[in-house]
Amino acid sequence: MQVKLDYNMKRENTMALRGLAAVVVSMRCVYLSVSERMVRLQHENQLLKTQSSSSENSQLLQSMLDDANTHKHELECQVRYCVSRRLLLQCLLSFPVSVELVHC
Questions:
Q1: How would you class 53 by CB atoms within 10 Å of its CB: exposed for 0-12, middle for 13-18, buried for 19 or more?
Q2: Mean pLDDT, to the nearest integer, of 50-56?
């Protein structure tokens, strides 16, 4: 009876760890995607700055730059959230607990 309980606990822990590992992998993909977007937006910002010499387009370019900076800020917030979430999941992977304790 004890062997069966130990086997079931190991099986549940293994399944929980696999699920957490899948979440970590998907979060890494999100982090890389956000990082790529940030690099692209920074490049677009540089292009906008070099093109802003024309006085006719300066207001339009400024609004586009403001929009890009707002979007960049949102992406940075997403990156911070993903990093904190990844750290939490790494802690959970380092210290596996039974499924009942996770739901408390």
A1: exposed
A2: 64
What pLDDT, in 10s, does the model give residues 61-82?
Answer: 888 999 999 999 999 999 999 9
Q: Is the Cα torsion angle 25, 99, 80, 64 positive or negative in sign?
A: positive
Query: For 103, which DSSP code?
Result: T
The residue among 37, 56, 33 whose CA lies nearest residue 45 is 37
| Residue 52, SS3 per DSSP | coil
Dihedral angle sign, alpha carbons of residues 23, 29, 33, 36: positive
Residues 6+ apart with CB under 8 A from 11: none
| Report field, pTM of the whole predicted structure over 0.70 | no
Q: Which is it for the CA torsion 78, 79, 84, 86, positive or negative?
A: positive
Instruction: Kindly give, in sequence order, each residue whose CB lies less than 8 Å from that of residue 38, ignoring residues fewer than 6 positions away.
Output: 72, 75, 76, 79
Name, in order, each residue with C-beta under 8 angstroms of 79's C-beta and a sequence gap of 6 or more.
31, 34, 35, 38
